[in-house]
């Protein structure tokens, strides 16, 4: 089992612990304050659909700014170099724009409380139950990743054993989610967003100064790893070797389309933030507002991974030495003075709690609404479901503690996360995208497309790749291929099954298929939506153009 490298302890003192204690007190205060606003299940699960776009937008990006971003993307930067920017500029921004412009009107307009509930309306109970189970499993697995990452930092900070760190961190997150539901998680995530930036920006600035700036990084790593290590596209021709182990086709198709759209458009941990917005306009703008800070996150996550590799060339070289996951803690130990170190530790803990809270809050929503209330205990009083959701939150955290030890087996947790996304999110996406744009798609097609897509991705990863049947150079390359397999298998099965089964009546598809409208009045957009910053199309195109511009300096 992988633990933090021996001797990697942070030189913290009383000032650092004081800053950390203040942050914990504020977070618990938010939980108690939010508890007073929770009167119904809608309040607990979706904040009563009352939050403004800027709050939900910052929460949207903060919910993803957990282990995936901090330890995972820094580890990716150290292992794969500048190729890591693909996860942002092609692997996030286009899908976030698509979610805001195309898919949010379907989600928000149908008044669903979860992503699986949309599948209930579109395909029926079989697809709904299967997707609910898949999402519940994936949520606690990903929550375990964040818990494991948080435990790594606590071990570096306090020297605690991994299991002690996992238990303490898990119960703290449990406290404020159980108290205030989604409102508590969202308002905490907004605070965490700024705390995270306050931690990562000084780390990046001091690190760049230590290694001689961007020129120093480029000279050192180009000499050691080759010139392609410091570019985004060089060496990605089909048949060419590169550190990522993927070519331009698998990057564009596997990451940029299938995996990216599969994650951002169907991951309820993200979509839930947009569904809590006060109206349709705010819901559409939520992922678009989040896209702009997302564009610049590589500057404070990927670059520190490169800096760590310059300062500690042994990263990832030996099984018992420093691992790629240690990149950020190494920089904190070596670069930051006390006080600033306390802010950095607080920022990291905030990031990991944000990621775990996002997955646990979405887990309690899906399990309570889409499994418990839909199939186990129907037509109970609203108070019964709120109480149940709190107990489900407890169960989710406890399961997440167990799954944290699965994540500990991976030297780069991003590899593990991307494997989970290819298994669970991509099959959901193919069912959504075909069902949303082809009204003849049948309920049976939705169920079998979801099931076979998931199985196809697992067969590719565990048999074709892990057993050496096909030669794929890296785990990330295998994840891209698994995503393509999941999409292709699911799509082919859906088309084939549709040709031999009966579709739902057209009147039942109103508002669920592109080109149709829900009965009744359209959702009001709210006053003042003629302002440029409230126009979703303008925000979306601005994010896409800015992401494309960012590629230019790193293209070749």
Automatic annotation (TrEMBL):
UniProt subcellular location: Membrane
InterPro entries listed in its UniProt record: Na/Glc_symporter_sf, Na/solute_symporter
Membrane topology listed for this record: Multi-pass membrane protein
Keyword Transmembrane: yes
Keyword set includes Cell cycle: no
CDD domains tied to this protein: SLC5sbd_u2 (cd11478)
Family, similarity comment: Belongs to the sodium:solute symporter (SSF) (TC 2.A.21) family.
Protein known as: Sodium:solute symporter family protein
Organismal lineage: Bacteria, Bacillati, Actinomycetota, Actinomycetes, Kitasatosporales
């Amino acid at each position: 089992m992988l633990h933090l490298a021996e001797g990697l302890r942070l030189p913290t003192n009383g000032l650092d612990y004081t800053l950390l204690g203040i942050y914990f007190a504020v977070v618990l205060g938010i939980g108690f304050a939010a508890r007073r606003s929770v009167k119904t299940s809608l309040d607990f699960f979706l904040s009563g659909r009352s939050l403004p776009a800027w709050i939900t937008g910052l929460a949207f990006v903060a919910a993803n700014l957990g282990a995936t971003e901090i330890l995972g993307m820094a580890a990716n930067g150290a292992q794969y170099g500048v190729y890591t920017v693909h996860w942002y500029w092609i692997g996030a921004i286009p899908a976030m724009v698509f979610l805001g412009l195309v898919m949010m009107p379907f989600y928000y307009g149908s008044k669903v409380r979860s992503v699986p509930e949309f599948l209930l309306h579109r395909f029926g109970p079989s697809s709904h139950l299967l997707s609910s189970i898949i999402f519940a499993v994936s949520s606690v697995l990903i929550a375990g990743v964040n818990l494991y990452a948080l435990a790594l930092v606590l071990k570096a900070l306090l020297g605690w054993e991994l299991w002690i760190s996992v238990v303490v961190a898990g119960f703290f997150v449990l406290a404020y989610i159980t108290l205030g539901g989604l409102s508590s998680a969202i308002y905490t995530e907004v605070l965490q967003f700024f705390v995270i930036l306050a931690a990562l920006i000084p780390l990046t600035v001091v690190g760049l100064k230590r290694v001689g700036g961007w020129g120093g990084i480029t000279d050192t790593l180009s000499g050691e790893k080759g010139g392609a290590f410091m570019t985004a596209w060089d060496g990605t021709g089909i048949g060419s070797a590169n550190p990522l182990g993927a070519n331009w086709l698998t990057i564009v198709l596997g990451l940029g389309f299938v995996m990216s759209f599969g994650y951002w458009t169907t991951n309820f941990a993200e979509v839930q933030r947009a569904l809590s917005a006060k109206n349709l306009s705010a819901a559409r703008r939520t992922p678009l507002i989040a896209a702009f800070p997302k564009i610049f996150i590589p500057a404070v996550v990927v670059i520190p991974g490169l800096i760590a590799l310059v300062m500690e060339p042994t990263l990832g070289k030996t099984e018992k030495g420093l691992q790629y996951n240690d990149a950020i803690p190494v920089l904190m130990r070596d670069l930051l003075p006390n006080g600033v170190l306390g802010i950095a530790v607080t920022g990291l803990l905030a990031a990991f709690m944000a990621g775990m809270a996002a997955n646990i809050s979405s887990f309690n929503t899906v399990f309570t609404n889409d499994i418990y209330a839909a199939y186990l205990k129907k037509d109970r009083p609203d108070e019964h479901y709120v109480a149940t959701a709190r107990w489900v939150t407890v169960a989710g955290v406890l399961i997440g503690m167990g799954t944290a030890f699965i994540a500990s087996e991976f030297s780069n947790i991003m590899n593990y996360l991307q494997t989970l996304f290819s298994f669970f999110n991509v099959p959901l996406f193919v069912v959504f995208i075909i069902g949303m744009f082809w009204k003849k798609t049948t309920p049976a097609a939705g169920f079998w497309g979801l099931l076979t897509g998931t199985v196809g991705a697992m067969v590719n990863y565990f048999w074709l790749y892990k057993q050496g049947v096909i030669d794929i150079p890296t785990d990330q390359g295998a994840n891209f291929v698994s995503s393509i397999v999941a999409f292709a298998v699911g799509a082919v099965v859906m088309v084939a099954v549709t040709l031999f089964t009966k579709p739902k009546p057209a009147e039942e598809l109103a508002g669920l298929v592109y080109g149709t409208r829900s009965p009744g009045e359209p959702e009001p957009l709210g006053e003042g939506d003629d302002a440029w910053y409230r126009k979703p199309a303008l925000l979306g195109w601005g994010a896409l153009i800015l992401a494309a511009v960012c590629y230019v300096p790193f293209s070749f």
